[in-house]
């Protein structure tokens, strides 16, 4: 095989595009699977896991919106305060044009925690 053809087929840019398409396919399947679970009459028992960069947060954002649109409350749990803050900022940015309240509860927001929890119990749509 000609070296220039090899570079075209297996070059970094082409491999990144193939990897991106694979990730999109996996993410789309995860979103559809979770939505199907949400529409089922049974209690949902699913965890979305994957490597860094596979779109777990995107899956969570889309299904959270579906839940909120159906008048449900959503809670996201993150293993670190840094990740909790990143998710908080991303959700705030994504949903800034919607009437959705988004709060961040972590060890860094303990003082506001009680007030947030009281507020959450009185409100409808939020994350």
Please characterize this protein's 3D structure.
- With 127 residues, this protein is mainly α.
- Helices cover 61% and strands 0% of the residues.
- The protein is built from 5 helices and no strands.
- Helix 2 packs parallel to helix 3.
- It is globular.
- Mean pLDDT is 77; it is low at 1-12.
Strand-helix topology:
Layout: H1 3-10, H2 12-39, H3 56-69, H4 81-94, H5 110-122
In short:
This protein is mostly helical and 127 residues long. It is built from 5 helices and no strands.
Q: Give the H and E element order.
A: HHHHH
Number of strands: 0
Percent range for helical residues? Answer: 55-70%
Mean pLDDT comes to: 77
What's the overall geometry?
globular
Largest sheet: none
Radius of gyration, taken over Cα atoms and rounded to an integer in Å: 19 Å
Number of helices: 5
Structural classification: mainly alpha
Low-confidence regions? 1-12
What portion of the residues fall into strands of 2 or more residues?
A: under 5%
How far the N terminus sits from the C terminus, by CA atoms, comes to: 54 Å
List keywords for this structure.
globular; 5 helices; mainly alpha; disordered N terminus; 127 residues
């Amino acid at each position: 095989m000609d070296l220039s053809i090899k570079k075209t087929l297996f070059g970094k840019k082409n491999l990144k595009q193939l990897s991106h398409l694979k990730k999109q396919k996996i993410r789309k399947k995860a979103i559809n699977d979770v939505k199907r679970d949400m529409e089922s009459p049974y209690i949902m028992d699913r965890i979305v896991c994957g490597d860094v960069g596979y779109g777990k947060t995107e899956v969570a954002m889309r299904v959270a919106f579906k839940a909120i649109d159906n008048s449900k409350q959503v809670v996201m749990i993150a293993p670190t305060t840094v990740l909790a803050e990143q998710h908080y900022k991303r959700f705030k940015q994504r949903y800034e044009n919607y009437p959705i309240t988004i709060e961040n509860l972590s060890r860094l927001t303990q003082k506001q925690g009680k007030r947030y929890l009281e507020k959450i119990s009185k409100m409808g749509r939020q994350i």
